[in-house]
Specification:
The structure is a single chain. This protein is mainly α and 173 residues long. It is built from ten helices and no strands. Helix 5 packs antiparallel against helix 6, helix 7 runs parallel beside helix 9 and helix 9 crosses helix 10. The chain starts with a helix and ends in a 6-residue tail after the last helix. The N terminus is likely disordered.
Length: 173
């Protein structure tokens, strides 16, 4: 079997996955277009959280986790993303993709607070921007509206927060 053929056949959960190259793992993760199966979701989440794994593989894992909105492991994904984002030793690019995954998923007050904490901290601007995406994506939730209101005076996100508040139907701003 040629290398190209092998790369096409490596899948998450296959016996060959653990010894697959970084490129093969990334390609297997890119093949995921929906994430409902609990066992597969758990494997993808483990990859996303494994600091020994290459960052590009972890980024693809978080991209895939953004498609797990109906997964029974959704609470685990939200909790893991929060741990990852709060970890100062964590790679910023991986943090960005964990936050972007949360922006695609149903969130709770805890994730809105996480986003607000990241925005108000001295985090890298792209990490803050990904956190703002969570608030923006959930502006229909009362806690997100409160977060947007509190961000109106933020030097980087104040204008965007005000614009998002204005876009909520029925608001007279």
């Amino acid at each position: 079997m040629s290398n190209e053929d092998k790369e096409k056949h490596v899948a998450i959960g296959s016996p060959h996955f653990d010894v697959a190259t970084s490129g093969e793992k990334q390609e297997a993760l890119r093949q995921i277009i929906e994430l409902h199966d609990a066992e597969l979701t758990a494997q993808v989440l483990a990859l996303g959280m494994n600091m020994q794994e290459e960052d590009l593989v972890r980024i693809e894992a978080w991209r895939a986790l953004g498609m797990a909105e109906t997964s029974p492991l959704l609470p685990n994904i939200r909790e893991a993303a929060g741990q990852l984002v709060r970890n100062p030793e964590e790679d910023e690019d991986v943090q960005i993709y964990a936050l972007l995954a949360l922006a695609l998923l149903p969130v709770t007050e805890a994730e809105i607070q996480l986003a607000l904490d990241v925005i108000q901290a001295e985090a890298y601007i792209l990490v803050q921007s990904a956190a703002f995406d969570i608030v923006k994506a959930n502006k229909h939730l009362p806690h997100a509206v409160l977060a947007l209101e509190s961000l109106q005076t933020h030097p980087d996100f104040g204008t965007s927060a005000a614009r998002e508040l204005q876009s909520i139907s029925g608001r007279d701003h």
